[in-house]
Amino acid sequence: VQCLQGKRLSIATLKEIVQSLRDCENLHAREIAIIFDRIYDVTSTHGSLELPETFLPKVSGWLGNDPALVQEVYQQTISTVFNRFTHEAAVLNPLRAKRPGIVASGAEEYIKKLVQETEPTCDFCRYKEMTAADTFGRVETEFAMTAANTFKYDGAHSLVMFRTHNPLQWTEEQFLGLMDTAMQWFGKAHAADPTHQFPHLMWDILPKASASQVHPHAQVSLGTGRYYGQGEHLRLVA
Questions:
Q1: pTM (predicted TM-score)
Q2: pLDDT digits (tens, 9 = 90+) for 105-151
Q3: How far apart are the C-alpha atoms of 202 and 84, rounded to whole Å?
Q4: How does pLDDT run across 66-103, given as a tens digit for each residue?
Q5: What is the separation of C-alpha 31 from the centre of its chain, rounded to a whole number of angstroms?
Q6: Other beta carbons less than 10 A from residue 131's beta carbon
Q7: Any residues with CB less than 8 A from the CB of 204 and at least 6 apart, and which?
Q8: What angle do CA 79, 42, 63 make, to 5 degrees?
Q9: Max CA distance (Å), the chain
Q10: 186: pLDDT confidence band, cut at 50, 70 and 90?
Q11: Edge-to-edge strands, sheet with 89-92
Q12: 4-11 LR contacts (CB < 8 Å, sep 24+)
């Protein structure tokens, strides 16, 4: 859009970007601003601080010794985006992404050992013998397959599993294959019982994220009457 040329496009300048769209001569740009304003309210504030000389070198190191970023620390811009319909809000300060984090040590070794220890006895690697099947059958594709969840949290509730055991070694093509398998399962489950019509997919990986199996898999279910929780709220406000 012509009115945004030369402007810094960043979360920190989101409020100014929207204002530029409102003031733009381009009709399409102004229509975008109208739609945006109908859904979102953007506000910004500034936080200032002082850095002791003893602390400054460490902060500078965190920011890659970039003088411009160091200067931003003294006067930070914090933006809040509020959804007028869902009442969700996000508070955004790009500088926070530069904070030092805890570097996990031994993560690769931990996962490698976990994979080696669990693969020989993995139920999902032998899914035809060691998992349940839906009454309408399994969905089996090149990259994934399904199994009925033995302990269900809905009438239509199953698993979609990669054909690979390692939870971190899969490609974009395999991921898209998993999603396609899930979509096929949704269609079959709905055809088997049309009262199940609100899809939900949940995915966690590795024990610390509460996954009960190391083998990568997603939970799929179809609700009756409504989506679960916040999903139904989003549908109602859409």
A1: 0.69
A2: 688 888 899 999 999 999 999 999 999 999 999 999 999 999 999 88
A3: 27
A4: 999 999 999 988 889 999 998 889 988 888 877 776 55
A5: 29
A6: 21
A7: 210, 211
A8: 20
A9: 70
A10: very high
A11: 40-48, 75-83, 89-92
A12: 10/94, 11/79, 11/92, 11/94
How far apart, in whole angstroms, are the C-alpha atoms of residue 144 and residue 162?
5
What residue has token string 């679960």? 228
Structure tokens at 129: 């013998």
**Which residue reads 């970023």 in tokens?**
69
Q: What is the dihedral of CA 193, 195, 196, 199, to 10 degrees?
A: 130
**If you average pLDDT over every residue of the chain, what do you get?**
90
Q: What is the pLDDT of residues 30-56, one digit of tens each?
A: 999 999 999 999 988 888 889 899 999
Q: In the block, which residue shows the tokens 């509730």? A: 157
Strands 198-203 and 144-148: unpaired
Show the tokens assigned to 140.
Answer: 């089996």
Q: Which two tokens stand for residue 198?
A: 């609100």
**HEC profile for 96-123?**
HHHCCCCCCCCHHHHHHHHHHHHHHHCC
Identify the residue whose tokens are 């309210």.
41
Strand order in the sheet with 144-148: 144-148, 156-162, 217-223, 198-203
Q: Determine phi and psi for 169, rounding to 5 degrees.
A: -115, 85
* pLDDT for position 103: 57
Residue 153's nearest CA partner among 112, 202, 108 is 202
